[in-house]
Amino acid sequence: MTSTIETRPVAAAVTPVRFHQVGKTFGQGGKAVVALDQVDLAVAPGEFVCLLGASGCGKTTLLNLVAGLDQPTTGRIELNSSRPAVVFQEAALMPWLTAAGNIELPLRMAGVGKAARRATAAELLELVRLGGVGDKRPHELSGGMRQRVALARALASTTDHTGSGAGKPSLLLMDEPFSALDAITHDVREAVRLGQRVVLLSSRPGRVVREWNVDGLTDGAETGAVDEVNAALREVISSHAA
Ligand SMILES: Nc1ncnc2c1ncn2[C@@H]1O[C@H](COP(=O)(O)OP(=O)(O)OP(=O)(O)O)[C@@H](O)[C@H]1O
């Protein structure tokens, strides 16, 4: 396992998202917080990239920039995708709608007919292993179950129903989506297992300090990668605290 990334050859035209020297500063003068600085990052089509860093290193800021919820202060973001779907730290479900109703919401907004909406919601509920709870409301579900409903809703919204994003890849942005999931506890192991690439950010300013290609590792290599990422993460956390 090498600690330097083998950057995949990505054709510029199909790269769903590419950061060019992106910086984001909140506030001005002495009180300014440089959240991100000179971030260069490209995500390949179909690639699952996990961002890791100390609390406050700029992960949410970076996702907000990709989602178009905020603008960079410097640099440029190239997006070649349909509208990104976001799963937030808090599930943010509509409390008055059932689980199925929440998943159907983006489909309803896209003008998808009732029968097709029902079928898609049922399929997505099965996918996130919540087949039996479509008629439950959020307060009747556990935190992990609510997060899975939010994931299913995001997946529903990444499907292009209008044709306006035709031919463009979709982007799914997840801010600590699995921290509330029932069976998964460890962020780094989770990132190495689920991701194809792990990107480590430093704190204030948030910069890309290291990347690992963690695609298709064997069990032994996976454990080695987890140890290596953990050590690097501890290093950025302690240098931030110093
Ligand atoms: N709207 C804002 N105004 C001022 N400062 C902000 C704002 N949003 C974020 N920051 C600051 O920018 C830095 C990055 O914040 P961000 O929320 O992106 O971190 P994070 O990596 O997502 O943190 P966590 O892992 O704790 O959720 C932090 O220092 C934070 O205090």
UniProtKB/TrEMBL annotation:
InterPro entries reported for this sequence: AAA+_ATPase (IPR003593), ABC_transporter-like_ATP-bd (IPR003439), ABC_transporter-like_CS (IPR017871), ABC_transporter_ATP-bind (IPR050166), P-loop_NTPase (IPR027417)
Ranges for domain ABC transporter: 17-238
Entry keyword annotation includes Metal-binding: no
Domain of life: Bacteria
GO molecular function, one term: ATP hydrolysis activity
Keyword annotations from UniProtKB, A to Z: ATP-binding, Nucleotide-binding, Transport
Protein source organism: Kribbella italica
Entry protein name: NitT/TauT family transport system ATP-binding protein
